[in-house]
Amino acid sequence: MSGYVEDLMAQVKGKHPSEPEFHQAVHEVAESLSLVFERHSEYRAAKILERIIEPERTIMFRVPWVDDQGEVHVNLGYRIEMNSAIGPYKGGLRFHPSVTLGILKFLAFEQVFKNSLTTLPMGGGKGGSDFDPKGKSDLKIMRFCQAFMSELFRHIGPNTDVPAGDIGVGGREIGYLFGQYKKLRNEFTGVLTGKGINWGGSLIRPEATGYGAVYFASEMLATRGESLQGKTCLVSGSGNVAQYTIEKINQLGGKAVTASDSNGFIYDEEGINDEKLAFLKELKNVRRDRIKEYAAQYKSAVYEAVDPHAAGNPLWDHPADCAFPSATQNEVNEKDAANLLRNGVYVVAEGANMPTTYEGVQVFLNEKILYGPGKAANAGGVAVSGLEMAQNSMRLPWTREEVDARLQLIMKSIHATCLLTAERFSTPGNYVNGANIAGFLKVADAMMDQGVV
Ligand code: NDP
């Protein structure tokens, strides 16, 4: 079977050159699926994986916009409609200067498996732009969002493709995008998720990815008869996912000691308690300032700048029990993974998408720690987006308690499915295989039923 993976990867690299993150995501899934193809040759014969790898549709467009000084800017816009076998395309929009076609294809590919795991009927997609919202006025952000939606609106719809937020796209951006969609279409529909509560949003959606990652970690710990109570946790990032990861760690009796942004990280040995977290939220969501300011505010914390070209990230080199990478892709490399283990970490739940390099993942798998890959551990965000779609269709909002209870149930179900599937394919405890295989089987069976389309 290793010959199969090598041949497939040679094809993928030939057809999709210069997209290393996409190759990495496909490679990891193909390795897991070789266990399936040994037992089920029908999927191979129908070239199901080869079909999942190719987006059903790739939309690329220019986004010209005029800033508040009258200067004209041109950004690139994308939407990857990856797979619609089990539901409308669903996945976030990312606004970040590092966005390329390859990055969005890796994210859209991962999303197909993740959405399948949620138990909800959602296909996979992803989109975004190389636009950098950092340091821009609200007016510039609004103008850009309107220009972006002026093209995107003709490709999306509540039964076709339902985007949400991701890096650089939070409540503010979703608001501007939704406003422009509504104006152009003259209809009020659940075309985006992550909306404001007063205009069709779901309670718990902002919290869902972070809370879900912590619920997933709790489920993994429970397999060893343990809980998060008293556990020290390393968290990276300081955006949406990181903030609500820290909040839930605190609620479950753990202690989060780090947070970061793209310039550096803070280490607060005493823990980022609720009062400090409120400051962090204000710093990042309202003042939109840098994490360095946290250390200026709290003497218990030290700030360290991070060189992205260094061999490793010192954030991952502190004593702890659990780690929640919640910033961006490939932020934990082989050296970081080894440092985590040396410092006592034995639980890793990925809030970010593919935050660990291929080599880093092998370190975790070889040591058989409790390692929850992003497509399982961070699926709570899109799961609650699915619940937002359900509420929009019914035109009935659910209470906070109801949505949170459903989120917990979904994370439990994803965890159990991963564990059972890993066992069924003779790799007990391997959540990577469990997530990839279980996510694949549901989509693959739907594709088999629907013929070659
Ligand atoms: P935000 O934009 O809210 O926050 C992103 C955080 O990560 C910021 O602290 C940012 O720092 C940091 N960051 C971004 N890019 C880099 C980089 N290249 N190097 C170092 N740090 C970086 O995004 P989210 O919290 O929503 O997303 C974080 C991760 O979680 C992403 O991988 C995303 O795909 C994933 N995810 C998000 C979901 C959601 O519901 N929002 C759902 C599932 C996964 P800075 O401010 O300096 O840029």
Give the helices and strands, then pairings.
Blueprint: H1 2-15, H2 20-39, H3 41-45, H4 48-53, E1 57-66, E2 72-83, E3 89-95, H5 101-117, E4 124-129, H6 138-152, E5 161-164, H7 171-185, H8 205-222, E6 232-235, H9 240-251, E7 255-256, E8 258-260, E9 264-268, H10 274-286, H11 292-297, E10 301-305, E11 322-324, H12 334-342, E12 347-349, H13 358-367, E13 370-372, H14 374-377, H15 380-394, H16 400-424, H17 431-450
Parallel strand pairs: 3-4, 3-5, 6-7, 6-11, 11-12, 12-13
Antiparallel strand pairs: 1-2, 2-4, 8-9, 9-10
Helix pairs in contact: 1-2, 2-5, 2-17, 5-17, 6-7, 8-9, 8-15, 8-16, 9-10, 12-13, 15-16, 16-17
NADPH dihydro-nicotinamide-adenine-dinucleotide phosphate is lined by residues 98, 165-168, 170, 209, 237-242, 261-262, 326-328, 351-353, 378, 381.
Description:
The protein is α/β, with parallel strands linked by helices and 453 residues long. It has 3 domains: 1-54, no CATH class; 55-187, Rossmann fold (3-Layer(aba) Sandwich), CATH 3.40.50; 208-377, NAD(P)-binding Rossmann-like Domain (Rossmann fold, 3-Layer(aba) Sandwich), CATH 3.40.50.720. The protein is built from 17 helices and 13 strands. A 5-stranded mixed sheet has the order 1-2-4-3-5, with helices on both faces. Strand 11 (322-324), helix 12 (334-342) and strand 12 (347-349) form a beta-alpha-beta unit. Helix 6 (138-152) crosses helix 7 and helix 8 packs across helix 15 (380-394). It is globular and about 60 Å long. The two termini are 27 Å apart. The model has no long low-confidence stretch (mean pLDDT 97). Bound molecules: NADPH dihydro-nicotinamide-adenine-dinucleotide phosphate.
